[in-house]
Every structure is written in structure tokens, then in C-alpha cells.
Design a protein that fits this description.
single chain, mainly beta, Immunoglobulin-like, twelve-stranded mixed beta sheet, four-stranded antiparallel beta sheet, 1 helix, 20 strands, globular, binds copper (II) ion
């Protein structure tokens, strides 16, 4: 009985995703997530790291949305900011439902400690919701296991500040973050959570086979508390994304509603 229920559930989701992909309207069901991806976030040695920048639905391995030239793309290391806009080159990322423009970029990380990547998307018009979405995403790379400034707030329009080290959280443990807008806590924010079900293949710019299917019931959502904090129990190793929705100060763009969102990516490991 149980196995029948699970099978039906998987078939249901597969059918739903196909239908949604055909309609190009998965947006209302599962979150848009701006992804900054590199397969290995804990570097053993100095060298060049390649990132993929993709705007899609990573838990459903669903619809890919077009990424345009961002407002900013850079990394921070020990307070030093290095512009990565010149390193961006356009790619086409092909998901299971469609393909859309995305970017890749390489950066050379020679020093030890934390590298904080920030990608500030230009407003994206989401026709199905008649509104603009502008996500400001952060992701982290650590070199040599040396502690750095991963816990530092960057003073972005909106951001999630990790209180758990984002480069090696543990499956079965928890992740805590704080949602900020211009440095101030955002109480009672909606934070959507997604697992990177199908990691991008760095060579083909396509997703690898998905390792999970989304649970029933739509997006996973956490509310921040009165001081902007939230905690998530991490059920599985891999990459997890958090998106605080509409927490930035900008609410209108070109006469339409704008959702300025803070996105954060973490890497979780199984303790073996
Ligand atoms: Cu969406």
C-alpha cells in the first residue's frame, strides 16, 4: 500500500512537471532560484574555479528562466572585492523542460580562507505573475579549511547571513540564517527552501539525473522570527538554497511590482 502510494506520487509529480514545462508556468508552484554553482566548494589547493550562474527551479529540475547581464557579480575575500563581471561568458543551460540563457565564469583563488560570491540579478519580468523578480544570491567557497569571514553581513539591499558555516553543514544537523534588508533584520519573512536535485553538468550545461523528487504540497517554506532568524533541519547531503522573498527595499520596477529576494546556497555533507 505504501509502495503503491509512493509510486503514484512520483508518477504524479513527473506528469505534473511535464505539464507545467509545456505550459511554461511552473513558477506558481515552485520557487524561482538563482543558482551560483561549482561542484567543489572546499578547495584543497589554489587554482581556477568555474561557476555556473543559472536561474531555474533546482528542486524540480524544472523550467529555466533567462538570465540577463547582472547588476553586479563579484567575490569578497578578507574584505577585498574583486569584480567578476569581465569574467562572465554567456552559455545556454538546457533543463528537462526547456533551455535558456545563463552564464559561466572562472575565478582564480590563490589565498586560503573564505570566498563569498555575490550575483545581483537585473530585474526579470515574470509574465505569469505580471511582476519583476530581482534576486541577490550569495554562495561560498573555502580554501584549505582556514576560517574566514563567512558570517559577515555585506550590507546588501537584502541578504541572508549564515550563522552556520555554509561550506560544510552536516546532513541531520541544522542551518541557521538571519534575513537582513540594508543591514536590518527582516521579521516574519517567507523563506523558500530548495534542494539542488539535479546538479549541473559542468561540461554539457545540462542537469545530471535528479536524485530526489519534490515532496507534495508545493514549496518548502520557513518564516523568519521577530529578529529575522530562521533554522532549517538539513535532511540530506548536497546543496541547499534559501530564498527570502520580497525582503529587499525595492518594490516597484517600470511601474510593476518587484520582488527583491535574498538567496543563499550552502553545502551539506554526510558524516561518514
Ligand atoms: Cu519559479
Amino acid at each position: 500500500m505504501l509502495s503503491f502510494a509512493v509510486k503514484r506520487s512520483r508518477a504524479y509529480w513527473a506528469a505534473l512537471l511535464v505539464a507545467l514545462g509545456a505550459m511554461g508556468a511552473s513558477q506558481s508552484v515552485l520557487a524561482h532560484f538563482l543558482l551560483i554553482y561549482t561542484p567543489e566548494v572546499n578547495l584543497q589547493r589554489a587554482g581556477s574555479v568555474t561557476f555556473k550562474l543559472i536561474f531555474w527551479h533546482p528542486m524540480a529540475n524544472g523550467q529555466v528562466m533567462a538570465l540577463t547581464q547582472p547588476k553586479a557579480f563579484y567575490y569578497l575575500h578578507k574584505g577585498k572585492r574583486v569584480d567578476l563581471l569581465p569574467a562572465l561568458s554567456p552559455i545556454e543551460f538546457t533543463g528537462v523542460a526547456n533551455s535558456a540563457p545563463a552564464f559561466e565564469a572562472s575565478a582564480t583563488f590563490n589565498r586560503v580562507g573564505d570566498y563569498v560570491l555575490v550575483f545581483h540579478q537585473a530585474p526579470f519580468y515574470e509574465a505569469s505573475e505580471n511582476k519583476f523578480i530581482e534576486q541577490i544570491a550569495k554562495a561560498y567557497v573555502n580554501h584549505a579549511g582556514v576560517p574566514g569571514n563567512w558570517a559577515q553581513a555585506l550590507g546588501l539591499a537584502t541578504e541572508i547571513v549564515p550563522l552556520t558555516k555554509p561550506t560544510n553543514a552536516l546532513a541531520g544537523s541544522t542551518f541557521t540564517g538571519q534575513v537582513l534588508a540594508e543591514g536590518k533584520p527582516v521579521p516574519h519573512a517567507d523563506i523558500e527552501v530548495e534542494y539542488l536535485a539535479a546538479e549541473p553538468d559542468m561540461d554539457t550545461n545540462r542537469p545530471k539525473p535528479a536524485t530526489v523528487v519534490p515532496p507534495p504540497g508545493g514549496a518548502l517554506v520557513i518564516k523568519s522570527d521577530a529578529n529575522g532568524y530562521f533554522t532549517f533541519g538539513i535532511p540530506r547531503a548536497g546543496f541547499w538554497g534559501f530564498a527570502a522573498l520580497g525582503t529587499g527595499p525595492a518594490t516597484v520596477y517600470e511601474g510593476k511590482a518587484l520582488s527583491q529576494d535574498a538567496v543563499l546556497w550552502i553545502r551539506a555533507y554526510e558524516l561518514k
